[in-house]
Amino acid sequence: MNTIALVVGSSGIIGSNLAQELISQGWTTYGLARNPNRNVENLQPVAADLLSPESLQTALENIAPTHVFFTSWMRQETEAENIRVNSLMVRNLLDALSPKKSVQHVALVTGLKHYLGPFEAYAKDGFLPETPLREEHPRLNIENFYYAQEDEVYAAAERDGFTWSIHRPHTVIGKAVGNLMNLGTTLAVYATICKETGRQFQWPGSEAQWNGLSDVTDARVLAKHLVWATTTEAARNEAFNVVNGEYFRWNKLWKQLAEWFGVEPVGFDGTIHPLEAEIANDGPLWREIAEKFNLAEPDLNRLASAWHTDLDLGRPIEVMTDMTKSRKLGFHVYQKTDESFFDLFEQLRQDRLIP
After folding, report:
1. Is residue 59 one of the residues assigned to a domain?
2. Does the pLDDT at position 113 exceed 80?
3. Highest taxon of the source (predicted)?
4. Residue range 311-326, pLDDT digits in tens
């Protein structure tokens, strides 16, 4: 089978890990981004602007992918703009590929905001689902750019005759620089700042998240899940949750993370302490740390996405994600969550992104 993958968003956490997985399995793999990832061996970079049909037509002129993996999005000021821009990116790409008649399957990565609501109404009263979250839960009665992206895939699939899969990870843990949502690296940067300044490693979130059960998605698990669904007939035209496969409590994991960095952990003390405010003025400090330890990235904002970490850790409910649907169809990859974080920290240290 001659499989040609187009990974859209190849510079991000999800896309870069997926590209490595595809290449390791022998796929011809193209990575599309505004600034393509050139650090993955044998990934063929494609520079294009998803908001420009002309740019896409030129960039994809000689590329006819059999499988498309859409892992990209652009954050806007309002959900209405999120919907307009992010659905347009999907539509432009699939319109550009349509005349080629080469696409057999499209995999779209969204996430748990499918169940918890968009940023403007995220996990707020009126939008709190029952847990564990299951794929059969109906859409919320509120606008959501994930729904708009799905609808673009469904419409193009009906037009062009390809199959599809929707993938809904929880918080994705993995390495990327300049990524919009990066909890693992954000916490590594925060812990590093605490270590250098003698600050306490203060839990920034809610009591419900501190004491409740939660889960996350290792980027390597998600990569395997994407390839599995794309190559498994029973998984076609289906939506799937995808997480590590175990539940944990932050009140234990927080202490483990603190121990790894050698900092003093402080748990929930009755008040939420937003991380965005905690590190808001630490840009110059991070530059000093980067110079002191000869780090590769002196820009704090290229590593930390505290706004997103605050959204995740500040939720008023525990969040558990059901994986039964994938398990019954044969996906049995499992990942221990503390090792997801520790593996990431080791990689960040190896790549000189933290001391």
Report:
1. yes
2. yes
3. Bacteria
4. 999 999 999 999 999 9
